[in-house]
Every structure is written in structure tokens, then in C-alpha cells.
What we know:
Largest sheet: 8 strands, mixed
Strand order of the largest sheet: 5-2-1-6-7-8-11-12
Helix content: 40-55%
Distance between the termini: 40 Å
CATH class of the largest domain: Alpha Beta
Radius of gyration: 20 Å
Order of helices and strands: EHEHEEEHEHEHEEEEHEHHHHHHHHHHH
Low-confidence stretches: none
CATH architecture of the largest domain: 3-Layer(aba) Sandwich
Number of domains: 2
Amino acid sequence: MGKSKFAVVGAGHGGKAMAAHLALKGFPVSLYNRTLAKIMPIIKMKGIEIEGEVSGFGKIELATDNIGEVIKDADVIMVCVPAFAHAAIAERCAPHLKSGQIVILNPGRTCGALEFLNILRERGNNNDVTVAEAQTFIYASRGMGPASVKIFRIKQAIPVAAIPAIKTDGVIDRINEAFPEFISGTSVIETSFNNIGAVFHPAITILNASRIESTMGNFQFYIEGVTSSIARVLEAVDRERVEVAYMLKCKNALTALDWLTMAYNVIEDNLFDGIHSNPGYYGIMAPKTTNVRYITEDVPMSLVPIAEFGKAFGVSTSATDSLINLANIIFKVDFTKSGRNLRKLGLEDLTLDQIRNVFIEGVPAKR
């Protein structure tokens, strides 16, 4: 059959890393970015220089702002854009996706695969397209130039799940050809609600807003930004996330401490010590502004759905609600309305069992 053909959607830090690494492994790769000017250096070089944990030159077969051209012959479409862009990408892909193709959101954040699949259906694409999501992004990476990228770390054992869940093993069989790091998640409930970024990113950013704005982020985000008080807020948000996951009968709900142990081999009994014992967090600087994805992505696409599920089924999310409210005040918006609320996900007024059927069996949600 030959090697799978990949399309990478998005040419930010992660998209460039994904495209270059796949190409370096010998896979045919096409790259889409909505702004052509951003990828002109890649088009001129016909590829991307990669350094760090892997190094070399990844030849890109096609780089363009025409999404139809990029995905038309792809076996697997790797979506590497912020979660707030998933809906727009689904709309652009809908006229072009064909039966047998696999779309993987890297990552889905919370309920990304469901949102993407709903939009395909709404736009009239009822082809047998498999939509899946990764729990987290596989790389820690940074763009080093217009056509170069550095991969600092390739993560291990990343759960991926599809809707319906019965398709997950097929996705893993196909993707392991390129990425043995991907493993089967039980369902998108697991990948969505084991989203540790929802715990760490918004709280640390919001509670350090003054420091970020006065220093332009000149401090270590995790090591200096997480004091004992802020760690207690993180623990409260984490408890609420896990309680919502349990309510949805997630069999593999990880606490943030569990995740630190799995990802970094950190063994502590509280988040303050866990974060400060993690050598991987040393040297990571804070963002230069509060107008950053840690809020603009993680609040509407992660905290909002967690709080919405909690509210619907009687799980208190007071700490999570507080962070959402503070983000609303800082940005003068209502992230609850713009984010992944139950209405937008097609889950409003459904019972718990009906919601689980949507996630696991792929039963279409009624809008």
C-alpha cells in the first residue's frame, strides 16, 4: 500500500514540527496555512529545517493556502491549530473530506472531536470520515525561523480517541506507522477530560496577570509563577475537572499529580512540590502578555465545557467558574457564550446516558 499520505493543517510552532518530522520519517506531507505569506519561505525552500531531539531537512511536497488541494489525497489529516480555530477548519474541510480519511485534532482540548464532527454534519458532509483527538500535543517545539523549527521534546504514550470509540483502534493502527507514541484512549471522554492544560494554563496566567503585565513575562512561568497559594487553586480546579470526568464515567481520569508522574516521573503528594520537582518546567518563561492562548484557548475550549457539564449534572465547579469570570472581566467578553457550551456541542437538555452515547457510540447530537 505504501506509506500513508499526511496533510498538516496549520503552520505554527506545532504544525511546522509535525510536518517536518513526518517528512523526515519519509512520509509524503502537504501543509496548509490560511495565510500564504507565512509559508512562502517553506514553499521557496520546499521544506522545513528541523533541529533538537531530531534534526535534518523535511521535504514538503505541497505548501499552500488552498485547503482542498492539501487534504484531497491525504490518508490522515493532522490538525495543528489552536482549539478556537477547530470550528473554522471543520467548515473549510467539510466540502473536501471523503470517506476513509482520518482527521486527528492535535490536541482536541475538551470536546474538540465532537465539535468538529458536528460541523461536518451541519455542512452536509455525511461521508465516513473518522474524527479523532489527541489528549495533548506530541511535541514541545518552537519555530526558530520562517522555515525552521526546534523540537525540544517528543512526548510518550499519548492517548488518542475517535468518535465513535469503536474506530479508535483503526486510527491507532494507521497512525502508529508514523507515531508509535500514540496509544488508544477509551473514548473522547478520556482525551477531553484528562486535559491537564485546562488546570495549569489559565489559573497560573490569570493569577499572575499583574506580574506578566509589569515584567512582560520576565519570570519562570511554572517555577516562579506557582506559589503555594496558586498551587492550592490549581488543586481545586483539578478536583473539579476529575469530578466531572467521574460523573461522565471516565474510567481513566488522571489527577494532575498522576499526569506529572506519568509524563515526567515526578512523585510528590501535592501540586506545589510536584511542579517544583519537575526539571522539565525549569527555564519555561511566562508569556509576555495576558492575551495568550493560555486564556483565549484554554478558557473557552476547556474550562467552559468542564463547567457546563458540572452545572448540568450537579457537580460544583466554583473554582473553575471563578477563573472563567475573571477571564471574562479581563477580556471584556463572555467566554461562556463564545466557548464550547452545551448548546454549541449539541448536548443541551440531553441526559447523562444520551451524552455518553454521543461521545462513545457516535449517535448524532440533536441541535
